Amino acid sequence: PASGPAPAPPRSVSASACLPASVSVSIRPESIRLLPRAAAPAAAGDNCLPGKIAGVVFLGATRRVDVAVDGVTLQVTTDADLPFPADGEVVLVFAPERAVALPGRVS
Fold first, then answer.
1. Could you say which DSSP state residue 27 is in?
2. Which of 43, 56, 78, 95 has the greatest number of C-beta atoms within 10 Å?
3. pTM of this prediction?
């Protein structure tokens, strides 16, 4: 039998080495619900982000609502007759399965 160096054991890589340093999350504007911050909590398992209404555009049967959340403006599509709180303080609510994680940071 031939002799030589023993084969090196397989190397393992930790899971964190495969994860991107940052991610962006994509979600359709119509998949987000707006609730007044003082309203009852969302359903268990829903994602919730506190924000403040920064602008509203009337689109006929719907409105596009710009909501400032931690320095980022998110767009939400709502029914045209949805009432907003006077102080503009809202909670954005969406189901986890409606969000898509994308590797890297999108500006």
1. -
2. 78
3. 0.72
